[in-house]
Amino acid sequence: MDTEPSNRRCPDCGVTLEAMALQTDGGHKVRAISDENREGLLGSLGMKEKHLIRPYVCPECARVLLYADVDD
Question: The whole model's pTM is what?
Answer without folding.
Answer: 0.64
